[in-house]
Amino acid sequence: MSKHVLIVEDDTDISRLLRLELEEAGYRVSCFDTGMRGLAAIRQERPDLVILDLGLPDLSGAEIARRVRHTDPTPIVILTARDDVETKVAMLNAGADDYLAKPFHMEELLARVGVQLRKHGGGQPTRIGDLLIDALRRQVFWGEAEVRLSPREFELLQYLASQPGRVYGREEIERSVWGGDLPLASNVVDVHVANIRAKLREAGGFGVIRTVRGVGYAIKG
Ligand code: CA
28-32, 65-69, 92-96, 121-125 — which is least confidently predicted? Predict the structure, then answer.
């Protein structure tokens, strides 16, 4: 199931653009234009990630972050028109996981959203058919059977599962899972995929990761 991103932003041009880009990237998106509506929706809808505008007409983004943080580990990315150190510190103190100054590049926002979702695993375990990935406990199950992965195998599987059906190129995987510090023409990604496949098969999971010849890998969507 695709990850749910909830946006609280009173500038409808920005929220419309965010919605478009995030949906294009495979996320499910809902938008709210006041702090009170946003806060109520966060509690009700339990999104995987929240994007908050700092300057809202009623509650500030920082106030919302503080209230959410009280009860909820959902990752929060704040958008701000102010880029001074005091603002940054205040936002982090309020419980924001990341922040971005406006105007921002959409690619940077998407990258940061991806990082936060992977880091937090969205709180809820990810289920794709019989495959269950519990990021909080760092456990993987195929049906009832636990699949014991190494930390790197876990990260790779979690990365592929962040958008089921999407084909991830080898270089993309290297950059995201290994931070890009693999030797050139290394086959480390392929070796790790082979290991994950073998472990999944042992638990009864066949054909979970698809090879896209000449490109990379995708998890069955
Ligand atoms: Ca605003």
Answer: 121-125
Distance, CA of 157 to chain centre: 13
Domain boundaries, the chain: 4-119, 125-219
Give 99's Cβ-side CA count (13 Å radius).
26
Give distance in angstroms: CA of 24 to centre of ligand 1.
23
pLDDT band at 34 (very low <50, low <70, confident <90, very high): very high
**Ligand 1 centroid from CA 56, angstroms:** 5
For the stretch 206-219, pLDDT in tens is 999 999 999 999 99
Rounded to the nearest whole angstrom, what is the distance from the C-alpha of residue 10 to the centroid of ligand 1?
Answer: 5
Give me ligand 1 centre to Cα 85, in Å: 19
One CATH from 3.90.950.20, 3.20.20.190, 3.40.50.2300, 1.25.40.10 for 4-119: 3.40.50.2300
pLDDT for position 2: 80
Full strand arrangement of the beta sheet holding 168-169: 168-169, 216-219, 209-212
